[in-house]
Input
Amino acid sequence: MSKKYTGSNSPLMVTEPHSKYVESALDESRQLDKSGKNEIQPFLPDGTDPTPSVADATAQMLAKLGVSSAFGVAGGAMASLWGALSNSSIEVLNFRHETGAAFAAVEAYFASDRPTVIFTTAGPGITNSLTGLFAARGEGAKVILVSACTSAPNRGRWAIQETSSYTLPSGGMFTSGALFNYAITIESAAQLPQIFRKLALALAQPGGFVAHLSIPTSVQTSLVEDISWPQLDIPRNAIAPNQQAIAKSVELLSAGRFAIWVGFGAREAAEEIRQLAEKTGAAVMSSPRAKGIFPEDHPQYIGVTGLGGHASVFTYMQEQPPLCTLVLGTRLGEPTSFWSPAMVPPRGFVHVDIDPEVPGVAYSHAETFAVRADIKTYLQELLKHWPENDSPSIETLPHPEHEVIPLDLDIDYPVRPEVLMAAIQKVIVEGSNAVVMAECGNSFTWSTHFLKFPQANRYRVSTGVGAMGHAVTGVLGAAQARNGKAVAIVGDGAMLMNNEISTAVKYKIPAIWIVLNDARYNMCHQGMKILGLTGADATMPVTNFAMIARGMGAEAIAVVRETDLEAALEQALAANVPFLIDVVIDPDRLAPSGGRNKSLAAQGVKSSPAKTPAKAVSFPSV
Output
C-alpha cells in the first residue's frame, strides 16, 4: 500500500510502513502551486521580489524532506539563508553556540523521528558544530548541516572567516566520509533537484544519516527562475533476513540456553523482543543506551552491561552461562561490553545489525554468526519459525540489586547521589512521562545504574562520543521536539562548559536540569585515585548554579538536604518554564564506574592494586 502526499510541487511517494517524519514530510511544505505547474513558490514577505532565491529554495526543499526544526547560530555569511529559514514553515531556534545547537538537533531527532537541521555561518561556525555532528554520526541520528562558505571569487583573498581549501581541509569537511554520509557545496540552483533526490532516498532508509550542504554567500542570493522537484516513490526497504539465516539462527539458539543482548538499534522492536524472551525463557540484558527497550521490571531482565552497569549480569554469565547470545542492534563496543571475555558464551554470538561491518568486530576472536537485517523484521521471522513444541525452562535469574539507603534526618549536607537517584526514580521516572537524559561522567553511571525504566524511549545517553555538554544542551532539543518535559541529569563540569539556559528561556522550552554539584570532574578525580595516579587536579571552584540560572531568567532552587529532594523535583515538574535544581552532592560517594577503570588498566593505564576497591561496584567486577 502506498500513501500519496501533497506538497509544494511534485508528490513524494512512500510505501508504508515508514518513519513518522516521512509520514508527514510534505505536509510541512507551503505555498502549493495552485496552477499545477511544477514551479517553486517563494517564501518571501509580501511586497518583495516574487522570484525566490537559492536560499528560499533550500528552505523549501528541507521542509519537503520533513524538517520542522532548525538549530544554530547566525552570521553575516549566511544571513540570506538564515532569513529564508526564518520565513519558512521550519521553526528556527537561535542558540548561543553551535555545539549546543548540534546536540539539540540530535536529541530533537530522537524525540520526534524527524530529520533536523543545524545551521551555521562560515569558518568557526562550522568547526564549532563538528563535535555535535560527530555525536550525530555516532548516535545514528538523521541531521543536515546547512552552512555558509566563501564565494568562489573571494577564495584565497583573506575574506572574513574565509571558508575554503585555503583555510580548512576539504576532505571530510565538505566531502562524504567518516563525518558526513553525504556532503556537497551548492554552486548553482540547478543542483537542488538532484540534491533533493539524494537526501530523500537516504533519509528514508534505516539507520542514521548526516549530511552537509554548504552554500557560498553569493549563491544564496542568486535567483531561481524555475525548478522541478523529482517525483519519488520511496519504499522503506527494511533489510529482511534470508531464510537460511533464520534457519541457522533457530539451530544455534535452540541448541541450549541462550541470552538476548539488546542494543539501541533494536528500539523499534521492543514488542518482538519481549515475545521472543517469553516464548523461549531467555535472559535479557541491555546496553546503557537500550535501557527500557526490554522492561527493567520484567522477571527475565538481568541488567545493564558496560558503563554504569550491573554486577547481576556478570553473576549470570558465571553461574548460569548461556550457550549462545543473540545480539540485537549493538556494536558491543567498550561502553557496552568493556570487551570483557567473560561476556563471550561457549558458542559465541548470533549478531544482528543493519550495518554489515558491525558483527565480529568488538570480539574478533569469538565465534559469530552475522545476520544483516532490520531487527524488527528479523525477530518477526524468527518468531514464525521457532519450534512450536519448544517450551521455555523457568529459571530464577539474578536481577540488579541496589543498596537501600534510608533518609537520615540528621544529614544536612551534602546529598548522597544514591538518594538523589531514588528521588528521581519516584518523582520523574514513575511520576511523569518526561524523557530523562544523563550526561557523560558520573552522572551517566549513577543514572544508568540506579534508574529503572519500564518502557522504551524514556532514557537517552551518548556512549560512542560521550561529549560533555551533550545532555546539558540536548535536553532543549528533546523538550522542544516532544513539546513536553525533558530532564537532564548533568555534572557541574558539563554545566559550566556548555549550557543553553537563556535559549530555553527565550523559547519557553520546559527543560529541567538536575546538576550534581560536587566541585570536581569527579569521574576523573575518583578514577585517578582508584588507578593509583596522583598529582593531577580535577577540582573546580564551588559554583552557585541556581543563581546563574535565575540570572538568565529561568527558575531554580538549590538543594542541600535529602529531605528536600522530592519537593524540589515536583516543583520543577509543575513549572511551565525552564527549571534548574542545583544539588550539592557528596563527592566521596564512589560512583558505579569500576568497569571503566578496569578497561583503562587493561589498555595500559598504570594501576595500583593496593588502591583498587576489593568489592565490585559495577559491571564487570574490578
Q: What stands out?
A: The longest helix spans residues 124-139. The radius of gyration is 25 Å.
